[in-house]
From TrEMBL:
Source organism, top-level taxon: Eukaryota
Protein species of origin: Rhizophagus clarus
InterPro entries (UniProt xref): Plavaka
Region (Disordered): 32-69
Name of the protein described by the UniProt record: C2H2-type domain-containing protein
Feature: compositional bias, Basic and acidic residues: 41-51
Short name of one Pfam family: Plavaka
Length: 707
């Protein structure tokens, strides 16, 4: 069977190929007509509709011949359109309309779209449509259906919308905002291939963050302090030939609860990843890119004036922290990446056999200072300290690196202990999952039963949730007398391990440290580390020769003394940013020459956010706390009567609250300068409140019907 297109007379052997071609061919014919319309300024929208109707009539009598022996089918032009539409509905669901790779977006701007550089949309309807399409990642097909629906039912003589979504996207691509523009610079050329760095100006990124509502109100007026995050490698084509590293920044002056929100971070750029046998060339390319990114603040000799809280304030900027995985940290420090290196720690010169030793003396921990590493490089003795033969750009910048991935090891080793040290190990693992699944936050989850693959897929948020509950999940999990295995780990020790972890983790979340706090934190680290080594040393294939463990025990306290607290240095937000800036833009690209397409998509996303912020009602009062789940509502004047009526239907804690309500309210009103209650006042009592840092406080004894 074959299929012939009535427009260009091409013949196809497969129906799918024919329908795909017919869509594009039909669109091309319509664009030709639209181009003619564009040349006549006086032509109205109704004339355009007539033209399209005439176009359909022109081909009404044309036939599509489908031959299969004596089998001949005749299809009109309108039937083609209908068949294509029906096949699209049959072959896809609603989510395919919102996000589909079936019709990848081509970022080449269509000709004769009359686009021009501007900063505003032609009208509000045009703007609302494009913001909708951009926000919800609606593809061209779905967006065009919205336009057709609007044009059909609006009864307007001239449509305010673009003729198609491609035109709308091209219009947004041509919009000019000085704070949303990406640049590119050639970093190196290798084997006739150019490697470009795509980036935004660092100072402009800082200013962009400071334009976000409520950022400046929560901005600490101290030295400028940048967190610098390098995300994991992103493969940007299906053959793996092109790779990019996204780089993000945020400001350390912003309070932790606000800094960990997505809009408090900026995409700084995409680093090119050179594929070459010469690894020193790869490393040199990486550091050249970083130098170019950070050059705006390196060249600052006298600081910078930034507009904060309605006034210009002088700052002296510096990069303070790099958040990265351990292998990526090796790229920054240029130490050998292998954990089997003789000196695997990028902070000191500890030998590999001492990584699990938590009783090292101060003399055993010789720090890798910038000056010492530079001397080894200049004297060509870099191999003796296990660093690469490349000049390290960061030798000129003081900062510290954080990697807080130890809890993942604790989960993995716990799973190994349960499976290997007990006859019914698999049943114990299933029991752990069963206990987790009984917690409303983990419905139906199977973390341990599915092994390392499931554990590796956990996000930072899920790990943090596990921290809170694992002590209860592990407690009384198995019989202490079942110790027929060598190096048996009893249940009490395993429970204490998670208890010590929680104590250590709570201390790590401090926003300020006194010297006594640091001593307490150091004691908690060593107490946990001793139990960690005792429980898992014989389970670990490397006998716990983990650089992360060594770094946490011996370097984190000094790092806090030198550079400040570690609270809030989480990769959770960056994981969502990776999806927002990489995965989604890549999925809607045509997978060819990806980098420019990613940047255009990101620009449209930024325009959408910028325009949406302008659309917010300025009269709306922002709330620090969000109350929900209202329990009671009553008049203040009738409070005692209300309490008496409800006292038999509430628990003891609520009765205590009722009894103390009036006195507590009086104390609160005394704190408010000049505040008085006039007339009848309604009181609302809520079951929960969401604080400004996202934490939820509950005022009930039950959660999801569980006490």
């Amino acid at each position: 069977m074959s299929f012939k297109c009535p427009l260009c007379m091409r013949i196809f052997s497969q129906r799918f190929a024919y329908t795909q071609h017919a869509q594009k061919c039909l669109k091309n014919v319509e664009v030709e007509v639209e181009e003619d319309d564009d040349n006549n300024d006086s032509e109205k929208y109704s004339s355009e509709m007539d033209t399209r109707s005439n176009l359909s009539s022109k081909y009404e009598n044309d036939k599509v011949e489908v031959d299969d022996d004596n089998d001949v089918q005749n299809m009109s032009f309108d039937s083609i359109r209908s068949a294509i539409s029906e096949m699209s509905l049959e072959d896809s669901n609603f989510e395919n309309i919102l996000d589909s790779s079936e019709e990848p977006e081509i970022f080449e701007e269509p000709k004769n779209l009359n686009t021009k550089t501007c900063t505003e949309f032609p009208n509000d309807a045009y703007k609302d449509l494009m913001l909708l399409v951009t926000k919800y990642k609606i593809n061209n097909k779905g967006g065009n259906e919205i336009i057709r629906f609007f044009n059909k039912h609006s009864n307007l003589t001239e449509s305010p919308l673009p003729k198609n979504i491609e035109q709308g996207r091209a219009f947004m691509n041509n919009m000019k905002f000085f704070n949303l523009e990406f640049s590119k610079v050639l970093i190196t050329k290798h084997e006739d291939k150019d490697y470009f760095l795509y980036y935004q100006n660092l100072i402009q990124c800082i200013k962009n963050i400071l334009t976000v509502p409520d950022i400046t109100q929560n901005f600490a007026l101290s030295y400028e302090n940048y967190e610098y995050n390098r995300e994991n490698t992103t493969t940007t084509d299906t053959l793996g030939k092109s790779q990019l590293h996204p780089i993000y920044i945020t400001l350390g002056n912003i309070p932790i609860w606000r800094r960990n929100k997505q809009d408090a971070k900026q995409l700084l750029g995409y680093l090119p990843i050179l594929e070459a046998a010469n690894k020193d060339l790869v490393r040199d390319t990486f550091h050249k890119s970083l130098r170019h990114l950070l050059e705006p603040i390196i060249l600052l000799k006298d600081g910078i004036d930034l507009f904060i809280n309605n006034e210009n304030t002088w700052f002296y900027p510096r990069v303070s922290t790099i958040i990265a995985d351990w292998p990526e940290a090796a790229s920054f420090c240029l130490v050998y990446k292998s954990s089997n290196s003789n000196l695997p720690c990028h902070s000191c010169l500890v030998k590999r056999e001492n990584l699990a030793n938590i009783d090292l003396s101060v003399n055993d921990v010789i720090l890798r200072t910038h000056d010492e590493m530079r001397k080894h490089f200049e004297n060509d003795t870099q191999r003796s300290v296990c660093i690469e033969s490349v000049h390290n750009f960061f030798w000129d910048l003081p900062m510290h690196h954080l990697d807080l991935g130890l809890f993942r090891y604790q989960i993995i080793f716990t799973c190994d202990i349960l499976k290997s040290q007990h006859v019914n190990g698999n049943k114990l693992v299933e029991e752990v999952d069963h206990r987790l699944a009984a917690i409303p936050r983990f419905p139906g989850i199977k973390i341990f039963s599915n092994g390392l693959q499931s554990i590796a897929r956990l996000t930072a948020s899920e790990y943090r949730s596990l921290m809170k509950v694992m002590i209860f999940v592990i407690d009384n999990l198995y019989d202490e007398n079942n110790n027929e295995v060598d190096n048996f780990v009893n249940n009490d020790d395993l429970t204490k391990l998670y208890e010590y972890w929680n104590e250590m983790y709570i201390l790590s979340r401090y926003e300020e440290f006194s010297e006594s706090d640091l001593e307490k934190f150091n004691d908690a680290i060593h107490r946990w580390a001793q139990m960690f080594v005792k429980a898992f040393k014989f389970v670990s294939l490397s006998n716990l020769k983990l650089p992360k463990l060594h770094s946490w025990v011996y370097h984190i306290i000094d790092s806090i003394r030198s550079y400040g607290t570690i609270n809030g240095y989480t990769t959770e937000t960056y994981e969502s940013l990776h999806k927002y800036f990489i995965k989604i833009p890549y999925r809607i690209s045509n997978k060819k020459d990806v980098e420019p397409q990613l940047l255009r998509t990101i620009k449209r996303q930024a325009i959408s956010i910028k325009m949406s912020q302008h659309s917010v009602n300025p009269a709306k009062t922002p709330r620090t706390c969000k109350f929900s789940a209202r329990l009671f509502k009553f008049s203040l004047q009738d409070a005692n009567t209300f309490f008496n009526e409800k006292k038999d239907s509430v628990d003891n804690k609520m009765q205590t609250g009722f009894a103390r309500f009036i006195s507590c309210l009086d104390s609160y009103l005394d704190l408010l300068d000049g505040f008085t209650i006039i007339g009848e006042t309604q009181i609302n009592i809520y079951g929960l409140v969401t604080l400004e840092n996202g934490a939820i406080m509950r005022a009930t004894n039950r959660y999801h019907n569980k006490v």
